[in-house]
Amino acid sequence: MINRLLRVVLAEDSVVLRDGMVELLGARGCEVVATAGTACELLAGVVEHRPDVAVVDIRMPPTHTNEGIRAAVEIRARTPEVGILVFSQHVETAWASRLLAGGATGIGYLLKERVARTSEFVDALHRVAEGGVALDPEVVTLMMRGGRRTRVDTLTSREREVLELMAQGHSNRSIAALLVVSERAVEKHVAAVFSKFDLRATHTDNRRVKAVLTYLAENGG
Hints:
This protein has eleven helices and six strands. It has a six-stranded parallel beta sheet, sandwiched between helices. It has helices at about 15-25, 40-50, 65-80, 95-100, 110-115, 120-130, 135-145, 155-165, 170-180, 185-195, 205-220, and strands at about 5-10, 30-35, 55, 85-90, 105-110, 135.
């Protein structure tokens, strides 16, 4: 990503908010190659420009219900190489689960209040562009609620904490700082999660992403 602008297609029906986000992203090293006010315009923009990331408001015209997230799911199916970062006023767990289904990588889901925090928003964009996962803490919390016994039940409370922070996109160093433990301790917890989830190292698989997806899938209800 060095010396290359992050290419973004931005879908937001509010012209004022859209223009503000374009200016914000431009100032933070991103290139908004297309903007869209409807789901159809979003799909066309992604096909034409093949961006690194599509930033999508869940609620778009004409009904302002789920047009944006439906378009995001379609983009994921058609062009899985394009990262998807959706944002919303509220958590839509059913659609979040669908977007994350199938072992997808390069997915983000933030609440609008998180998008307003510029550094967090841009950091999430880069994580998604690089094939990672960036989930709002509230999304993680709601999707974790389940009830049936799963592999997640084998985790210790500390391992769960570490995995939840992984789901939010934190690195081992960041997790260590947040939990006030050593980075080596975090590495041991992460290794324990991989072991309990039976995630073996390969040359191509991102075990962190797979661990997060397993966690959400088994706790999404």
